[in-house]
Structures are given as structure tokens and as C-alpha cells.
Amino acid sequence: MSFYLQAFITFFKIGLFTIGGGYAMIPLIQSEIVEKKKWISQNDFIDLMAISQSIPGIFAVNIAIFIGYKLRKLKGALAMATGTILPSFIIILTIALFFQQFKDYEVVQRIFKGIRPGVVALIAVPTFNMAKSAKINKYNVWIPVVSALLIWLLDFSPVYVIIFAGMGGFLYGKYKHKNSAS
């Protein structure tokens, strides 16, 4: 099987069985791409996730494009992005065609209520895994905590958090490099 077909099928399966959006895809992408197929390293995955979150667009599509491009340039990006987008498109189209007929059924409402806690877990697990991989410890845990509180409680724009965090990382790296060169 060609790499492009394999990449398309891999991301199609991930897209097909992911409920809760791009962040819920993280553990599935990590499991398939980093652990099983070993197409990229854990550190590359963390870096690509950071970039994918920092640019406009749908996170799941962004990360698929970045992984595909890293592995096989434009064709890889197209194969993985198409695999990511197509299941959602098909599912949304199907729901749009039939949801009005079923939305008031008690069973359907209960199913959606049951799915919500599972989606929270799908988002929480990669968050903790990312914290370990990003070497979050007792000295720098304040950065994500303060960032989350600024966004959540003070309605601070995530764009500014990303800009300030990037500038802070740059300045810290420059300071650390300056001191280690002395």
C-alpha cells in the first residue's frame, strides 16, 4: 500500500472515530503516528501541536497538514488533510439530512448527554501527557495555569497569551544562552 493511501486511511479512521473536535483527536493521532507507525518523534509531535494551535484554522486539519508536510511535503499534507476532513464532512452531511427527524427522541438526547463526559476525558488525557512531554514541573507550572486563568476568568484573548508566551520563551532562551556562553 502506498504511503499516501496509508496516511489517508489512518487520518480517515482517526477523523471517523473522534467525537469532540480536534483536541479529542490528539491521543488518537499520537498513538497512531508517534507510537504505532513511528512516523514522527514525540518531540516533533509536541512542536507540531504547538504550531498547529498557534495558527488560524481547525486544529485537527492544521496538525494533519503539518505532519503530512513534514513526512512527504505537499502530497503528504493533502493526503492527511483530506483523510481528516472527509469523515466530518460525511457525518455532518448525514446529520443535517436526518437530525431534525430524531433530535426530540429521548434516546438521542441521552446518547449526547453520555458522550459529553467522554469527550472531556479525551481532551484531558492529552493535556496531561503534553504537560509531561513539555517538561512542566513545579518551577514552570505557573505558566499554563496563569494562561488558562487569564483566558477563562478575565476573558483574555488566547492570541495575546500565545504572543506573550512566545516572546517570553524567546527572551528566556536568549538570557539562558547568554549566561551559558559566559
Quantity of strands, as a count: 0
Q: Helix share of residues?
A: over 70%
Question: What would you report as the Rg, rounded to the nearest angstrom?
Answer: 19 Å
What's the multimeric state? single chain
Tell the overall outline. Answer: globular
Number of helices: 7
Would you tell me the overall average pLDDT? 86
Care to describe what's here?
The chain is an all-alpha fold. 82% of the residues lie in helices and 0% in strands. It contains 7 helices and no strands. It has helices spanning 3-16, 22-36, 42-54, 59-102, 106-133, 142-153, 158-181. Helix 3 (42-54) packs across helix 4 (59-102). The longest helix is centred in the middle third of the chain and has 44 residues, at 59-102. The chain starts with a helix and ends with a helix. The mean pLDDT is 86.
